[in-house]
Design a protein that fits this description.
Strand order of the largest sheet: 5-4-17-16-18-19-20
Largest sheet: 7 strands, mixed
CATH superfamily of the largest domain: ANL, N-terminal domain
Radius of gyration: 24 Å
Bound molecules: adenosine-5'-monophosphate-propyl ester
Structural class: alpha/beta
Helix content: 25-40%
């Protein structure tokens, strides 16, 4: 029996049992079976959740790009590694083979070196979904530089916060990007962001939209001429298994984003293993994940996981609505996609459109469908199952996080029977548990609680860049000796997990993880604003949308409310990006607070969701009268 590939339910249970009983033996066998190591490990695992410190495959030496590229050159060098589908359907798709990708990565890596980038340096990548994005990620990994991809929809302030947090030496961007019918001036955003970033020495600029942009002399370089001159050979930097691979920022419940640090060996093993099993990838499949590489989903399941398995992975530059709402299905037909992995918010948006947009296309190549990023509601699940999968494709509802690096809870298709809205069972090596509010483990089935993980898995983030204390406080302090996910979950009568949503101050909007604190900080910068509180409320496409309660300063000045709303949303766009804009803004005389001054978001959430029948006891509040006033004017 192969440890690497699960083929039926009985095997899943066998492998799962072994992975819990003998985790080190299990992961050692997986790591030995499939990967290229320059030196084997001295110790499979060392961990202590109280410090917290987690080390996998200590002493092992490798380079992840050898596993993603070099390893495939002789067996599948001419196979397409990256299939690039441009924003404009009339622009030809690019089929980049493993040989070509290897060459591109080596050249890019040499360019990085020529600009002084060395092992351990941080490189910020701020690019649209064009091949250069994947290539630059891999080029960093080739030479041991730590990449940090910033989603190209983030604002200049969000970019500079990240650049400064990790003290990046270089930024890689493009002259602009296409997004449906629009173009976006990415380089302009970078220039604005870098005004306050003293550590950045160089900016490499890829050409995509061919506009005139300003190039700052001595700092900015066009990428292509440098690549033209670079050698196509670049020996991989030999890394320790625990050397950093990348930093990826995610929102937290305080203002500063958290730079989750992932390391090399464990991340490679886990993302490759889960890619193979969760998508049941076979040699001639064409796999497509619609996420952006700016998110963890793109890191693990567009770049590293698929390439470590020698897969063909699609990169799509555009949006699902351009040139019309049939674009996803057009691409599925055109490239004969076998695995399709997307977010519930996209499914809900497409399900609102006419079914002709689906029925026009031949989708019979599809074998496995996936979702990620937020809970999927029953209606969207059935629409996906009926219309896209024709009831023949198992839907893998994959639960995981930026912090977990890879999928932790998900059906294994053709093995685990699926159940709408359930992420189902833990993958091998994952030991979930539910905790009650008093810190006690909830045993048995048909129960609900806070989702924790009891034992480390190879791709868990090792720290928050520059702030280990925050890592400890956020993930390892709520419950003794357990990793706390921040999610609530229920376990049904057969042990299947269903994720019910965040139990902290993070709100998932259209699959994007947004902290309330950074949004509130942005709003509070408005000169007319005294205080604010953000909560989520149910939205039929976005899953959750944002509702802001804003207290204005008492200046006596009367301001136009609609203008104020626009200004507030503009501030949020400038500080974070358009994804964090508020759907509703209510101006309120006060916010319900506990006697210790904490905002009672629970009450605000209920008002925003129009669920005010049971607000609970408000009499212990500092200002109970304010609740009535807010309810009266609720939007
Ligand atoms: O609340 C969970 C939700 O997304 C959060 C993680 O967000 P992020 O770090 O941005 O990573 C998203 C992509 C992995 C989780 O804490 N989430 C993710 N997947 C699911 C989900 N909620 C329900 N069901 C899922 N399948």
């Amino acid at each position: 029996m192969s440890n690497y590939h699960i083929k039926h339910l009985e095997e899943y249970f066998q492998v799962y049992r072994k992975s819990v009983r003998y985790p080190e033996v299990f992961w050692e066998e997986v790591a030995e079976e499939h990967f290229l190591w320059r030196k084997k490990w001295d110790k499979v695992l060392e961990w202590d959740f109280t410090k917290p410190e987690i080390k996998w495959f200590q002493g092992a030496k490798l380079n992840i790009t050898e596993n993603c590229l070099d390893k495939h050159l002789y067996v599948r060098g001419d196979k397409t590694a990256i299939l690039f589908e441009p924003n404009n359907p009339n622009e030809e798709a690019q089929h980049i083979t493993y040989k070509q990708l290897h060459e591109k990565v080596c050249k890019f890596a040499n360019v990085l070196k020529s600009k002084g980038i060395q092992k351990g340096d941080r490189v910020i990548i701020y690019l649209p979904m064009i091949p250069e994005l994947a290539v630059s990620v891999l080029a960093c990994a080739r030479i041991g530089a730590i990449h940090s991809v910033v989603f190209a929809g983030f604002s200049s302030t969000a970019l500079s916060t990240r650049v400064n947090d990790c003290q990046a030496k270089m930024v890689i961007t493009s002259d602009g990007s296409y997004r449906g019918a629009k173009t976006i001036d990415l380089k302009g955003i970078v220039d604005e962001g870098l005004e306050d970033c003293p550590t950045v020495e160089n900016v490499l600029v890829a050409k995509r939209i061919n506009t005139n942009i300003e190039m700052k002399s001595g700092r900015d370089y066009w990428l292509q001429p440098l690549l033209d001159e670079a050698s196509a050979e670049c020996n991989p930097e030999i890394m320790d298994a625990e050397d950093p691979l990348f930093i990826l920022y995610t929102s937290g419940s305080t203002g500063r984003p958290k730079g989750m640090l992932h390391t090399t060996g464990g991340y490679m093993v886990y993302t490759a293993y889960t890619f193979k099993n969760v998508f049941q990838y076979k040699e001639n499949d064409i796999y497509w994940c619609t996420a952006d590489i700016g998110w963890i989903t793109g890191h693990s399941y567009i770049v590293y996981g698929p390439l470590a398995n020698g897969a063909t992975t699609v990169m799509f530059e555009g949006v699902p609505s351009y040139p019309d709402y049939g674009r996803f299905w057009d691409i599925v037909e055109k490239h004969k996609i076998t695995q399709f992995y997307t977010a519930p918010t996209a499914i809900r948006a497409l399900a609102k459109e006419n079914l002709d947009f689906v029925n026009k296309y031949e989708l019979s190549s599809l074998r496995v469908l996936g979702t990620v990023g937020e809970p999927i509601n029953e209606e969207a699940w059935h629409w996906y199952n009926d219309n896209i999968g024709d009831k023949k494709c198992p839907i893998v509802d994959t639960w995981w996080q930026t912090e977990t690096g890879g999928i932790l809870i998900s059906p294994v298709p053709f093995s685990t029977p699926t159940k709408p809205t359930y992420a189902t069972l833990p993958l091998p090596g994952i030991q979930p548990t539910l905790m009650d509010e008093n810190g006690k483990e909830i045993k048995g089935n048909s129960v609900e609680g806070r989702l924790c993980i009891k034992f480390p898995w190879p791709s868990i983030a090792r720290t928050i860049w520059g702030d280990h204390e925050r890592y400890k406080n956020t993930y390892f302090s709520a419950f003794d000796n357990k990793y706390f996910t921040g999610d609530g979950a229920l376990r049904d009568e057969v042990g299947y997990y269903r994720i019910t949503g965040r139990v902290d101050d993070v709100i998932i909007v259209s699959g994007h993880n947004l902290g309330t604190a950074p949004i509130e900080d942005s709003i509070n910068e408005h000169p007319a604003v005294a205080e604010s509180a953000i909560v989520g409320f149910p939205h039929d496409v976005k899953g959750n949308a944002l509702y802001g309660y804003v207290i204005l300063k008492e200046t006596g000045e009367v301001r136009d409310r609609d203008n104020l709303r626009k200004e507030i949303n503009q501030l949020i766009t400038d500080h974070i990006g358009p994804i964090a804009k508020l759907n509703k803004i209510q101006f309120v005389p006060g916010l319900p607070k506990t006697r210790s001054g904490k905002i009672m978001r629970r009450i605000l959430r209920k008002i925003a969701s129009k669920d005010t029948s049971n607000l609970g006891d408000t009499s212990t509040l500092l200002n109970p009268e304010v609740v009535e006033l807010i309810m009266k004017e609720a939007l």
